[in-house]
Design goal:
The complex is a heterodimer. By secondary structure, chain A is an alpha/beta fold. Chain A has helices spanning 27-35, 70-89, 112-122, 130-136, 143-149, 153-162, 177-190, 208-216, 255-260, 289-302, 320-334, 347-350, 357-371; strands at 12-21, 24-25, 42-43, 56-57, 101-104, 169-172, 196-203, 246-254, 267-276, 311-313, 343-344, 373-374, 397-398, 403-409, 414-421. Chain A contains 13 helices and 15 strands. In chain A, the strands form 3 sheets. In chain A, strands 1, 2, 5, 6, 7, 8, 9, 10, 11, 14 and 15 form an 11-stranded mixed beta sheet that branches. A two-stranded antiparallel sheet of chain A has the order 3-4. In chain B, 38% of the residues lie in helices and 18% in strands. Chain B has helices at 22-31, 62-66, 70-86, 92-95, 111-120, 127-138, 143-147, 150-160, 172-188, 206-215, 249-254, 277-289, 310-321, 329-332, 339-353, and strands spanning 7-16, 19-20, 99-104, 167-170, 194-202, 239-248, 261-269, 298-302, 325-327, 375-381, 387-393. In chain B, helix 1 (22-31) packs across helix 15 and helix 3 crosses helix 8 (150-160). Classes of the chains: A alpha/beta, B alpha/beta.
Chain lengths: 425, 396
Amino acid sequence: MAHRDRKGRPVVAITGMGIVTPLGTGKEDNWKKLTAGESGIRTITRFATEGLRTTIAGAVDHVYEEGMHSATLSEKLARLAGTEAIAESGIGSKGDFPGPLFLAFPPIEIEWPQRFALAAASGANEKIEYGDLVRAAGRPEFRRFYEESKYGVVPDNLAEHFGTKGSPISLTTACASGATAIQLGLEAIQRGECEAALAIGADGSITAESVVRFSLLSALSTNNASPQGASRPFSKNRDGFVLAEGAAALVLENYDHAVARGAKILGIVEGVGEKADNFHRTRSSPDGKPVISCMRNALADAGVTPADVDYINAHGTSTPENDKMEYLGVSTVFGEHLKNIPISSNKSMVGHTLTAAGAIEAVVSVLTILNQRIPPTINYEVPDPAIPLDVVPNKARDARVRRVISNSFGFGGQNTCLVLTGEPG
Amino acid sequence: MTARRDVIITGLGLVTALGEGPQANWARLAAGGPPPYDDKTFAPYITFPAPPLNLDTQIPKKGDQRQMEAWQRIGVYAAGLALTDAGIAKNTEILDRADMIVAAGGGERDVAVDSAILTEVRKSEKPDAFVNERLMSDLRPTLFLAQLPNLLAGNISLVHGVVGSSRTFMGEEASGVDALRVAHARIAGGQSEVCLVGGAYNGTRWDLVLLFRLGTPLLEPPFRPVWDRGPNGALALAAMGAFVVIESRDHAERRGAKPIARLASVQSSRNLRKAGESEKTLRNEIAAVMPSVKKDSAVVISGASGAEPATSEEKKVLAETGLPVRATTTYIGNGMEAQFLANIAFGCQAIRAGTLFPPSGSGDTGDTPAGGISQALVTSVGHWRGEGLALIERVD
């Protein structure tokens, strides 16, 4: 008999997971380091940081190759994570994934090295205008700049590489993107459009200009002297997030389909909630309503109550505002029960992988359930009395974890929460 | 599989070089004048500029207007037109739970800052540090918010209050097709009741002229219809915004909304654009809906891009259907993420008007069916990818 969830929908299982973070490549390496409380944040060496206010990041230096741009690095990250996930799942065959691709990916564009090359080729001697760059643009050697800068190219490359079916969907909901990719895959399976979907969140877009952009919005930690101690979610002395790169992939599959082919069930995506915020472009509504609705929508979608949640995988960016807002949100939603629920932030170790974060944290949430062990919030030395939470400070903890809510709150007001559990029964 | 529900289009918002609103756009097409292109600003390249918009009518706060760049203002404006047309603007009860899928580009650089840096960096001994320092001092902090694709949706939430959900798809024409396909599937499958779907694009920018010139021929004078741009083809970048409000039939009826048309189906596909592949894909998409097409009263609104050989392949397949065909790109240019949604609006308008506009170019064939128009097939054969087909029907 077909399995149905509490709402009568097909049950959606996770049968494969892949992950890349500044800590390393693959679940094994990442899990070991996450539970050891290691930080992946370092001083930036990929480009000159002179003149920048922030000079630290969680860059994936072990993946980066000389000359890569945001698009090419992000694509490589997506391939690594996707390959690990599909291999674990054992679904389809090499280059033939039996379902659609949902890719959370950073917006890309022409970058400075490319502009410099075009300017040099333009032959303009005095002032360089865009018209000069355009005149040089027709040369065949610059055609690759087009492919490195157009939104549709990477999802198409990945669809070809993994052999996913149909038009690949590339999406962004800022810091919630990874969770949105999972949500879209979940919904497609629930609708019966497919038996499986590949959800990937990837982000390898740290450039000098991206650092500048976030700096100008005063979003980044400037604790350059102590890179590994810079990401301090929920601490009183937190001073901003740390930009990072990474990717995660999840093979989502109709539970019955997975069981029928003998796949190992790693976890279940039990519910998703979303709610947009219309308060401000970069700040959350001070009453916390959108974030509260988002979590409540996720619990309602899963058909569970706050008391059914054992652990919260926090958005926990380490910005003064987010962490305060997240506390307001969880304390409202979970009330008295909150004192029994540990809540930790993977970003304390990994940094904020932006587009990839929701997917990375979903994978870590499932690993938390599989291992019955909660990764810590590191750098928690000075508790913020306004945020009284059990943040699993500094050391991993063994715990009974059956159900996790993973929060993703995006810049621009897009919020998504996932409810994840282990294999049923 | 969940029971399929009827999906109704109840609101249209359209901004193209022809004007604002589907009726005004259609009137310009019907009048058969010259396409409203601009061959001066980005000479030698031809572009289609945004029409004059009274932004205050849809974006009342000047502060909001300032925080956006042109592509976002066009999109937020068009989204407001669609919500107003659907009769749900300012209806907080509905907007609070209304879903939203936006197809968005982004970018929009400060070309003055870029040009100054490129000019002056040559005198610098430490070019990397020079760029860092100049970006830190010269970029407007809020420019970033005008560059992020998801901030179009973010601005729509802020200005119009659509907050049920918010998702942004990226990837030129394909993202517009998939935005509508997913929104349609969610409503048909019972996952959503009402959704604002759309896209916006501003191709009248040097940074985008640069991007496309790197990989695609751009149209230069003399102006030619989209079907007849030679063996290498050519695009004419455009400013464009297009949004639709779609909802379940039940939801529309309960609130007494006037249906514009029924969105019967939306398909999207992918191929690698090897010779003949666009032809095959489009033929398959058409074959999938042909059993429900009324041959004596259906028309095709083509989204042909002007890229070749895709446009010629599309022309061939559409001719095989025997249905009257009109391509709108000749008159509105290439609006990428907004293109398919704009053509959905034109398809609706064809059904409402019951007549077609005069043909232009070798692929525009046939005349208005004698018995009026009951269905429109809307195609997308994007400039690089972006294969799609929607079927829209009159609600009798």
